[in-house]
């Protein structure tokens, strides 16, 4: 029943939001800012109320006259502010109800959100009570109706038993002590409201309490226009308990319950109000979860932030990331703008409900979702577009402190940053060396993140390469090198799957960083390194992975030489590197594959590995073929 009701209400919201998106754009759609609009209306209420309180009298004989002076003698200030005060109260009740109804429609009130839902229900009642109380302070005929109807409604309760209405039978029974009490309630309730509003948003990561400036201005101007076109005025003259008020204009936003006092039995009305309130309190737990239903937390890995967080059951990817300080791109947070679009690399998520213009069917088929709508169903890996505002890329000026030739065409270069500077990076990332004319050449970190005193690069001489030729022929220790970084999304995923590394020539550099980082972090996952080279001389650091294999039981090293020379006396594996992997693994299902090297090698390897069972979302590479913003180890020169 609840699901069916949600579906109906959601249909109306989806169509209304789509219409408003076309009219105002997704950034200024008021449906996406109902909560902050409620906050803004409260600020208007507080500001206008403070002004009115300065000039208003709270004595029973002076209240009405003081309000009339405010309204007519200074219509250009007090009169307008009185109208804005009333209309902002109506507006706040309306937007709060829409805000609550929208969260119900989109099923965003269960699980950990119960606290926000409960505080929201309390806030609606408090604002409603403060609004009804405000009518009494005017002390006109409408105020008389409100006071008498409230007294008669409360009188049916056993604790009062008909005693309240006696205070309003005769005019002389009403004294200034009543107005002192009413004023105290009208000042005290908003203080409780603002405190609860603050509590209400505490569990919303990076919550805003003000709408975008254009919306705030539009709301204010709307109330100003209403104040000028239809000003709020006192009704029927001063309250007189000897005369029953008739012909009053009713406020259906704030007074509908009091109208029902004379339509239905007051006690039945109490049962209805209390029952509705209890039902709203219980909604987050209705219907009850079936016994054994799993609501455990899931692990969520974000790239390129290289951060792993926990996601609560039913929590959106965006909220989970923001709650744990991941700088994610977002704007509307309601599935309307598409700014928080991301790709699910691994795991299963529920895409949620969103506007079709924010995420096309083609994008959804490619594994893309909106982080503000999608909820995680199991451990998942997410890749998103990093905006300029959240990027940690910066430029550095380093000095060459050591150069070591590892092979005839491979040079190890150690760079040192100025005293006090270090670069934080994730194993598998790379830097762009900046040439004099602004061109850039990409090289992976060969050192692990925990050894950050130097930046280690393993540079292969590329025939005709501008920068690599400079390294081998002219670079010397003490030279200055400018670079930017860290860059790239290539890094170990958070899982327990066995890992197969495929390195081609100097593709060993990022693999070295990743493996040494894995050892440092104590990872016990099985790791297999297949290092493929054309000639034995290209295997420039064979002793290092051999030592790893001796020291770590979970690590295995398989060098593969494609064309060994007879003089090499090579007894190891030969041929293409992927052929050795296929021979050793009848099925690659359940494994993670990391390929590092030239574009041509990656393009040749992955189709064969996928044919052997490697999963599409579990094949990763630092080569250009996977992403327009990835960079290969080898510079394109």
UniProtKB/TrEMBL annotation:
Keywords: 2Fe-2S, Iron, Iron-sulfur, Membrane, Metal-binding, Transmembrane, Transmembrane helix. The lineage of its organism: Bacteria, Pseudomonadati, Pseudomonadota, Betaproteobacteria, Nitrosomonadales. GO terms for cellular component: membrane. This is FAD-binding oxidoreductase. GO terms for biological process: respiratory electron transport chain. It comes from Candidatus Nitricoxidivorans perseverans. Residues 393-493 form the FAD-binding FR-type domain. Its cofactor is FAD. PROSITE patterns: 2FE2S_FER_1, 2FE2S_FER_2, CYTB_NTER, FAD_FR. Residues 298-388 form the 2Fe-2S ferredoxin-type domain. One of its GO terms (molecular function) is 2 iron, 2 sulfur cluster binding. InterPro entries: 2Fe-2S_ferredoxin-like_sf, 2Fe-2S_ferredoxin-type, 2Fe2S_fd_BS, Beta-grasp_dom_sf, Cbr1-like_FAD-bd_dom, Cyt_b/b6_N, Cytb/b6-like_sf, Di-haem_cyt_TM. The chain crosses the membrane at residues 37-56, 84-102, 114-139, 178-201, 213-233, 267-286. Residues 1-213 form the Cytochrome b/b6 N-terminal region profile domain. The main subunits of complex b-c1 are: cytochrome b, cytochrome c1 and the Rieske protein.
């Amino acid at each position: 029943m609840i699901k069916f009701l949600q579906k109906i209400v959601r249909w109306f919201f989806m169509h209304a939001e789509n219409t408003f998106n076309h009219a105002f754009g997704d950034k200024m759609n008021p449906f996406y800012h109902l909560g902050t609009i409620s906050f803004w209306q409260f600020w208007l209420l507080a500001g206008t109320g403070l002004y009115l309180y300065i000039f208003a009298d709270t004595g029973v004989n002076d209240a009405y006259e003081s309000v009339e002076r405010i309204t007519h003698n200074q219509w250009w200030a007090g009169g307008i502010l009185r109208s804005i005060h009333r209309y902002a109260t109506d507006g706040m009740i309306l937007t709060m109800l829409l805000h609550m109804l929208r969260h119900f429609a989109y099923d965003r009130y269960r699980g950990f959100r119960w606290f926000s839902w409960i505080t929201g229900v309390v806030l609606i009642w408090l604002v409603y009570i403060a609004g009804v109380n405000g009518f009494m302070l005017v002390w006109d005929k409408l105020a008389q109706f409100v006071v008498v109807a409230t007294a008669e409604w409360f009188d049916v309760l056993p604790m009062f038993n008909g005693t309240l209405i006696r205070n309003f039978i005769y005019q002389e029974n009403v004294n200034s002590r009543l107005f002192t009490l009413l004023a105290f309630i009208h000042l005290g309730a908003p203080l409780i409201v603002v405190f609860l509003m603050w509590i209400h948003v505490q569990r919303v990561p990076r919550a805003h309490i003000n709408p975008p400036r254009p919306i705030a201005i539009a709301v204010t101007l709307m109330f100003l226009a209403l104040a000028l076109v239809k000003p709020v005025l006192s009704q029927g003259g001063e309250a007189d308990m000897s005369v029953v008020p008739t012909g009053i204009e009713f406020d259906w936003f704030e007074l509908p319950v009091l109208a029902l006092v004379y339509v239905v039995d007051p006690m039945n009305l109490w049962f209805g109000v209390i029952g509705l309130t209890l039902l709203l309190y219980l909604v987050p737990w209705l219907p009850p979860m079936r016994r054994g239903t799993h609501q455990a937390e899931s692990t969520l890995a974000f790239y390129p932030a290289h951060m792993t967080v926990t996601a609560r059951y039913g929590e959106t990817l965006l909220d989970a990331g923001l709650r744990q300080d991941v700088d994610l791109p977002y704007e509307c947070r309601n599935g309307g703008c598409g700014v928080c679009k991301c790709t699910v690399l691994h795991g299963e998520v529920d895409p949620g409900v969103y506007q079709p213009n924010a995420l096309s069917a083609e994008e959804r088929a490619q594994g893309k979702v909106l982080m503000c709508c999608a909820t995680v169903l199991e451990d998942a890996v997410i890749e998103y577009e990093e905006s300029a505002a959240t990027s940690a890329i910066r430029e550095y000026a380093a000095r060459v402190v050591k150069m070591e030739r590892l092979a005839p065409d491979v040079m190890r270069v150690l760079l040192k940053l100025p005293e006090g500077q270090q670069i934080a990076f994730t194993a598998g990332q790379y830097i762009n060396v900046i040439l004099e004319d602004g061109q850039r050449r990409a090289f992976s970190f060969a050192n692990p993140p925990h050894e950050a005193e130097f930046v280690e690069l393993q540079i292969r001489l590329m025939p005709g390469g501008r920068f690599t030729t400079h390294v081998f022929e002219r670079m010397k220790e003490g030279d200055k090198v400018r670079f930017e970084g860290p860059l790239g999304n290539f890094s170990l995923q958070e899982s327990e799957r066995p890992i197969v590394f495929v390195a081609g020539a100097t593709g060993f550099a990022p693999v070295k960083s990743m493996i040494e980082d894995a050892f440092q972090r104590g990872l016990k996952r099985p790791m297999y390194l297949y290092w493929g080279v054309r000639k034995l001389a290209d295997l420039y650091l064979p002793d290092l992975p051999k030592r790893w294999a001796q020291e770590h039981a979970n690590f295995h090293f398989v060098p593969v030489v494609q064309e060994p020379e007879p003089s090499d006396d090579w007894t190891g594996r030969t041929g293409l590197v992927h052929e050795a992997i296929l021979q050793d693994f009848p099925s690659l299902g359940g494994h993670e594959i990391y390929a590092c090297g030239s574009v041509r090698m990656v393009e040749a390897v992955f189709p064969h590995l996928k044919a052997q069972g490697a999963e599409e979302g579990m094949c990763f590479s630092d080569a250009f073929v996977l992403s327009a913003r990835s960079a290969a180890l080898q510079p394109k020169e």
